[in-house]
Amino acid sequence: MPISLPPFALTAPAFRFRHLAGLAGRAPIGGAREVALACFVAARLAAECGLATDDPQRDREARYAGAKAWLATMALPAPVRGSVARCAALSVAGAAGDMAQEITALMQAAASHLDAGSRAELSALSALLRG
Predict the structure, then answer these.
(1) Is residue 54 within 8 Å of 85, Cβ to Cβ?
(2) Which of 31, 41, 99, 126 has the fewest Cβ atoms within 10 angstroms?
(3) Per residue in 19-54, is it b (16+ CB within 10 Å) or e — as a string?
(4) Positive or negative torsion for Cα 122, 39, 98, 92
């Protein structure tokens, strides 16, 4: 028997990339956590490319500038850093196909730091962006 909610109740929010966020929360401070956070940020930026949003160019550029500044403070392995930086840069143009390739490259570069759920989220995002 389904439970009905009162008319004033809010539905539970859907949280994208919960495995990446959970991994970042569980990982010890240091490399693994920073890689998980970087992948989470890249996934959030990439997800915007797959949506039919009409964000102004200046908003996308501002998000890129913020991500780039944040990325400069992170201690990441070189392959992961490069891939996240390219994802952030691609988010300005909004080219979903290019972003899909870069998300796949990020998943491969960070594979040793990611759990199965996190890799599955990145893989699903890449497939979504490919169309």
Answers:
(1) no
(2) 31
(3) bbbbbbeebeeeebbbbbbbbbbbbbbbbbbbeeee
(4) positive
What distance in Å separates the CA atoms of residue 59 and residue 79, rounded to the nearest whole number? 27
Query: For residues 102 and 86, is the Cβ–Cβ distance under 8 A?
Result: yes
Residue 99 in contact with residue 64, Cβ under 8 Å?
A: no
CA distance 131 to 112: 27
Dump pLDDT digits (tens) for 73-125. 999 999 999 999 999 999 888 788 899 999 999 999 999 999 999 999 999 99
Asked whether 35 and 76 are in contact (CB, 8 A), the reply is: yes
| Phi and psi, residue 8, nearest 5° | -95, 0
Q: Which long-range contacts (CB under 8 A, 24 or more apart) does 102-110 make?
A: 102/46, 103/42, 103/43, 103/46, 103/129, 106/39, 106/42, 106/80, 107/39, 109/77, 109/79, 109/80, 109/82, 109/83, 110/35, 110/38, 110/39, 110/80, 110/83
Q: pTM of the entire structure?
A: 0.86
